[in-house]
Design brief:
- This protein has 89 residues and is mainly α.
- Helices cover 64% and strands 0% of the residues.
- The protein is rod-shaped.
């Protein structure tokens, strides 16, 4: 059996091409928006994990060192261990 060559029209209507370009642009913008939202959420959970660990240590009186670094708006190394665990939530 011989295959017949079918002549195809290779042009796409302009309206469809414009809609497809707009869809690609919108999809990219939505992907960027979602990535930014995920970064905000990750940073929020990191901050919550560090603050919770710091509150637990200070309420139990187990702050390492003489002066709690929270007085200087910082956190100790033990508090940052909680950040490592919360990094991939």
């Amino acid at each position: 059996m011989a295959r017949r060559k079918v002549k195809h029209n290779d042009t796409v209507p302009r309206e469809i091409a414009e809609l497809q370009v707009a869809a690609y642009r919108h999809a990219f913008q939505e992907a960027v928006r979602r990535a930014n939202e995920a970064i905000k959420q990750r940073d929020y959970y990191r901050r919550c994990a560090i603050e919770t660990k710091c509150e637990q240590l200070s309420s139990a009186g187990k702050c390492p060192g003489d002066i709690c670094p929270l007085a200087f708006d910082m956190h100790c190394g033990k508090c940052h261990e909680a950040e490592k665990k919360a990094r991939y939530l």
